[in-house]
Known about the structure:
Shape: globular
Radius of gyration: 13 Å
Largest sheet: none
Number of strands: 0
Number of helices: 5
Helix content: over 70%
Amino acid sequence: MNVQEHIQRSRELLARGQPELAESALSDAIDAAVATEDIVLLTQARFALGELLFQQGRDDEALPYLQAVVRTERVDGSVDAEVKASARMLRQIRGIEPR
């Protein structure tokens, strides 16, 4: 499976109420992105896992993924949405913004 397929599978698993399997699919997405050496896909996969953990209230586990996304800069703007959303979640975790 490629990165996008893993991310889609995680969404389907979440919709079926299987967050543990969704988390596993997102870990597989990160591994697939690393294997392809694609920073955009890696950022998307990290964001998806960070967001899932954040939504589950697992802030300590979400932090490294969200921080990695925020540190990603692309001149073409291909990950701007993920960077902005991650920054917002980090502010919420730190209590700067309401959840």
